[in-house]
Amino acid sequence: MFLSSNKCEGIGECVKICPTEAIRLINGKAFSCITCGACFESCPNNAIFKNRYGGYIVDRAKCNGCGVCQFNCPVNSIHIEYPEGEVDFEKGVVDEYPEGEVDFEKGVVDEYPEGEVDFENNNSAKNSSKKGKAIVKGICARCGICTGACPVNARLDGFDLVEDKQINFLKSLNLAIPIPKDVKFDKKEKEIKRNCVVTDLENCILCGRCEYYCPTQAINIKTDQEGICTQCRVCADVCPADAIHKGVIDHGKCVLCLNCLKHCPNNAILEEDFKVNINKIDQETTGSIKSCLNCGLCADNSIGDSLKQISGKMRYDPSLDKDDEGIANNHEIAINTCPVLTLSLSDDPRIGLRGYCVSCGKCVRVCDRQEARSFKAIKWNGEVSDDCISCGICSEICPKDAITLKRGAIEVDHDKCILCENCGIHCPTDAIPKTTIAKKSIADGFNLIDNKLCMNCKLCYNICPEDAIIDREDIGIMVVDENKCIYCGACKNACPAKAFIFERQFENST
Q1: What is the band of 257 on the pLDDT scale with cuts at 50, 70, 90?
Q2: Are 243 and 249 contacting, i.e. CB atoms less than 8 angstroms apart?
Q3: What is the SS3 assignment for 219?
Q4: How far, in Å, CA of 57 to CA of 460, rounded?
């Protein structure tokens, strides 16, 4: 939650700028929604959901203004604006409402055209579209705009406080609800760790030697020069006559077994007129290399126990997948969600799966000249670079729901994160570090603002990194400039009214 320090002078700039009216002044100090989630838990229409910032949003298309969230708010932050005035449940009347008063015996609003208020069930019928729907306000979306608006820097993000300060502040509120015992606070900086085999791209020449010797085909190399020797030396390894040395064939020793031709990873060996020759050019090999990250996501997404991560290493038992159909069904999700797309079905039904690293170290040993493959402990403390645009793609794409947005940064749950690097692979600005060259880019999308739901708070306008949101002050609406929009989603994730109709598609760029 966001809170005010002792610096607060009650100026009220945060109150004015809050798009959901979730901040108010109490005894000259700014006080706001504590984002406890009581409204989310109690909403009978599932109209309140948790957004990517860790705050809560009201889906006005689902909300019928029943008021259950208002009744359950422990700090009385929520208020509801009805089309004809607010229902005052203490007085039993509709403020400034000419059609009638609340009849508590009948449990309805007399002659109320928009619907009935059922006090027994804390529910009301849907309002008519003619006069609009009730608007729930007072719920913090954690957009963070209040912190920048405070002229004395008195607004703080609770995420940034240590455990003792958070607990003492919550206790000082004397809330009607107890502080959850399972709330976790980080007293010191943590790091997420994962062990795997990585590639030193500066030393790697994309020869394909590691890929050839990998027993589980967990390394994928693509070169731009098909049919050209990459200096992998596999031909020399498989030659039974020891006729190949430093990429040169000794035709006096060659017995034309064609073993080198069959095993050449790049199809660079040709046979003609009873001689085999290696097709070489003096040119640097270009392309890409991807290998299993050993993150274990595939094991989590597989059905059954055939694929597991044991002591930090991937292990697979094909005997536990009964037949070909069982293999496909059990691992379909795992294959489709592999961050680097190395996992796939094997052509050999006895093998079942391929593309998962078993940490045998064979690739490290065979890369004896370039020494480009090595075991490494990958670490990440959750920090991102200044290039972060708060688009929220990382939070959307995270398979473990471990990322919460902050303005210009992210908050990572170290207990959930498995370092699958999905966030870094999809990050449009490369603000998140990653070890793989795998990359997905936004290919296309659709973005539209539903102005019936828009609150005109201008959060989308202020956060858009491409200036693709236009403020049409002349007609009082916000519109999207499709010529500028890159479909990053920053506007959608910041919107406190769920007013964006948004879609996007990704494509593999490496």
Answers
A1: very high
A2: yes
A3: strand
A4: 15
Residue 127 pLDDT > 70: no
Confidence at 6, pLDDT banded by 50, 70, 90: confident
d(CA 91, CA 112): 17
Q: What is the mean predicted confidence (pLDDT) over 35-41?
A: 95
Residue 479 φ then ψ, to 5°: -130, 155
Beta strands in 355-408 (DSSP E): 373-380, 403-406
Determine whether 7 is exposed, middle or buried from the number of CB atoms within 10 Å of its CB (0-12, 13-18, 19+).
exposed
**pLDDT tier at 204 (50, 70, 90 boundaries)?**
very high
In angstroms, rounded to a whole number, what is the distance separating the alpha carbons of residues 417 and 264? 40
Tokens (6 digits) for 255: 């017995």
Distance, CA of 341 to CA of 291 (rounded, Å): 9
pLDDT tens digits along 429-461: 999 999 999 999 999 999 999 988 888 888 999
E strands in 234-391: 244-245, 248-249, 269-272, 275-278, 287-291, 307-310, 313-316, 344-345, 353-354, 373-380
Q: Residue 62: CB partners within 8 Å, gap ≥ 6?
A: 45, 46, 47
CB contact at 8 A, 334 and 307: yes
What does the pLDDT average to over 344-348? Answer: 92
pLDDT at residue 299 tops 80: yes
For residue 201, give every residue at least 6 positions away whose Cβ sits within 8 Å of its Cβ, in sequence order, or none: 289, 372, 437
> If pLDDT is split at 50, 70 and 90, which confidence band does 486 have?
very high
> How far is the C-alpha of 501 from the C-alpha of 142, rounded, in Å?
21
Strands (E), 46-128: 48-50, 56-58, 79-81, 87-88, 93-94, 102-103, 108-109, 117-118, 123-124
Cα–Cα distance list, 125 to 40, 45, 86, 108, 141 (Å): 20, 12, 15, 10, 26
Count of all residues that appear for the chain in the document: 510
Side chain identity at residue 73, one-letter code: C
> What confidence score (pLDDT) does residue 172 get?
61
For residue 448, what are the CA distances in angstroms to 420, 452, 502?
32, 12, 6
The answer to whether residues 343 and 292 touch, using CB atoms and an 8 Å cutoff, is yes
- In this prediction, residue 93 carries a pLDDT of 41
Ranking 28-32, 87-91, 415-419 by mean pLDDT, the lowest is: 87-91
* Non-local CB neighbours of 397 within 8 Å, separated by 6+ positions: 422, 423, 426
